[in-house]
Each structure stands twice: as structure tokens, then as C-alpha cells.
Design a protein that fits this description.
The chain has 8 helices and no strands. With 182 residues, it is an all-alpha fold. It folds into 2 domains: 68 residues, no CATH class; 62 residues, no CATH class.
Length: 182
């Protein structure tokens, strides 16, 4: 096999991604891309899922299959090298987040939704989002990262599953863009 796409990449994952994306730059991008519904993690960050010993673990197997499904079905951002991509040491990406609330990779994800940096900024800065308490997405993420004293107490007292503000923001944006008709 030619040189590995990324350091410490399991052969099974490398073979899978090369079969989907024969251009090495695009394959690396697909490996490094964060997947919102998988905790904003990348297949590369979770490469241990493709190790031989993780195959016996049902939970790891389920997560690995979810990554593989995403890599297969969500390939549009990895079709052409000319498409914008976030800065990463292993790629030619140049997109940087203008917001402290979003990583470069997260900002790039929103750009895949809206098509350009200008449109992305308009949606994140200028649209009040009902499901985020009638705040803009950036206000919501800022407030989640810097909660008020009262919000901190409320969070500690509430029971239940931990709330991921980045997933809530992503879901709210996708709901605005693609409203359900049920």
C-alpha cells in the first residue's frame, strides 16, 4: 500500500476510506472531518474502533458502523480538492473560524450547510433561533460556554442526560434549513 494517509491509521480504516475517496487529499479530509451526530468526533480520532480487538465489543462495533455509514452517505464535502476545508496539519485546508465559540472544523461544518462563509455568518450571527431560546446560534453557544450564576445552579440541580450545546446548535440550524413536515 502507498504511504499511509495519516499516522497510526489502522489498515482496515485506510482501505475503507481509500476505496471511497481515491484522491489522498480528499481521503484525509474525510478521515479528519467531525461528524455532529457522533459527538463532533472524526473517524481518525476514533481510529481505535477499526483495531482487531474492538470488533468483539458490540458498542464499539455499532459506533464504527455509524462512522462508516456517515463516510459513505455524506461524501459531498469531499468530492473536489477545490472545495473549502478547515485548517489541519494533514490537509491543504484554509478555513478558519472567525468565532471563539466554534472551532475551525465546526465552522467548516456550518459552511457545508450554507455554501459560503458569508451565508454562514448571516445564519449564525443574524437569525434568532426559536429552539435556542430566541437567541442567535453564536449567542446561544457563548452563553452555554459562559453560563450565568443562576444558569449554573439550574444545570447542577437538573437531572438527566448531559446536554451538548454544540449538538443543540447544529440540530437547530439543520431544523431551520430543512424543517420537518410531520
Amino acid at each position: 500500500m502507498p504511504d499511509s494517509l495519516l499516522p497510526d491509521l489502522p489498515e482496515a480504516l485506510e482501505s475503507l476510506v481509500r476505496s471511497m475517496y481515491p484522491e489522498p487529499e480528499l481521503a484525509r479530509r474525510a478521515l479528519l472531518a467531525p461528524w455532529p451526530f457522533l459527538g463532533f468526533r472524526s473517524a481518525y480520532e476514533e481510529r481505535a474502533l477499526w483495531a482487531a480487538d474492538s470488533i468483539r465489543d458490540a458498542k464499539a462495533e455499532q459506533r464504527r458502523l455509524a462512522f462508516e455509514k456517515s463516510l459513505r452517505e455524506e461524501g459531498e464535502p469531499f468530492r473536489r480538492v477545490e472545495q473549502p476545508y478547515f485548517v489541519s496539519v494533514h490537509t491543504q485546508g484554509t478555513i478558519r473560524s472567525p468565532y471563539p465559540e466554534l472551532s475551525d472544523a465546526e465552522f467548516w461544518l456550518y459552511m457545508t450547510l450554507y455554501g459560503s462563509e458569508q451565508a454562514t455568518r448571516q445564519w449564525l450571527e443574524g437569525k434568532m433561533v426559536p429552539s435556542l431560546g430566541w437567541k442567535t446560534t453564536l449567542e446561544y453557544l457563548h452563553d452555554a460556554a459562559h453560563p450565568s450564576f443562576l444558569a449554573s445552579i439550574r444545570k447542577r440541580l437538573s437531572s438527566g442526560k448531559a446536554h451538548d450545546p454544540h449538538l443543540a446548535a447544529w440540530s437547530a440550524q439543520t431544523d431551520l434549513l430543512y424543517p420537518s413536515y410531520s
